[in-house]
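[Automated response] Your request has been received and processed.

Submitted sequence:
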Amino acid sequence: MKRLNWRGVGVALVTPFRQHKVDWPALAGLIEHVLQGGASFVVCLGTTGEAITLSPEETSEVLQFTVAKVAGRVPVIAGFFGDNYTERLTSKLKHYDLSGVDAVMSSSPSYNKPTQEGIYRHYMAVADASPLPVIIYNVPSRTASLIQADTIVRLAHSHSRFLGVKDASGDVSQAMRILKERPEGFLLWSGDDVLTLPLIACGADGAISVIANAFPAEFCGMVRACIQNDWARARHLNDLLLDIHPYLYAEGNPAGVKAVLQVLGWCSREVRLPLTPATPELVGKIEAALAQLPALQASASVSL
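Generated structure:
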């Protein structure tokens, strides 16, 4: 029986590539790596998973593969249900094969920059159409469309289908407002790894993480320590990773975390255009940073 534990760390899995194709052995190894490291759930094909550069056939295959490899040990979230045309998205939700999936994550509409009322109506339509719980994904750096705290709280109180919000607004005060006014059972996960510790201190339920692809034991341990009010251990683990975080985004996500994963031996740093792989200069900086943290060195799991 699958344990639906939504508190803690959800890992936004990368999609490993080799010679332009999905690297299935690397994906299998990575899934096992994050589960053994303490992930509470996994997010398949979110932003970090490069869903928008996969064909519909590849998207379905990656999702089915992930569900099979997780094998019911933790919940699986399908992270690719965002669109700037509401009717197209609701139709997709009604007809997509979500066997073995426990929730969907939906980013706010990008490009057309709707009003807060438009965002509210969009998400209410999504909630009505979805057969599964819905996680609101607030990521204005990518969508050019901030979902304001009042709108998130309004949605949370308006429809039981909303499980929570991944807040990547970068605004701690916004998260605090949601935490103060949310209904019981509505969760908030940090969408910015580096802000996770302070957000949990404010009442957040964990994080949906990028860095936990590479360092699941350390990041999950930090979040677990926060939840258990062991702040000394939480700060120690947070400090271990603090100098690594900037490299994950210096040349964009997931280029940065894939470079870290390559250095650690889990997969190649290959991404799909219009993204480009991390430059040798960034890889060199990552190697130097990891050399200063021998406790974080992982044994290679994939021969590159």
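Summary generated for your ticket: Strands lie at 8-12, 17-18, 21-22, 41-44, 76-78, 103-107, 134-138, 162-167, 187-190, 206-209. DSSP finds twelve helices and ten strands in the chain.
If you did not submit this request, please reply to this message.
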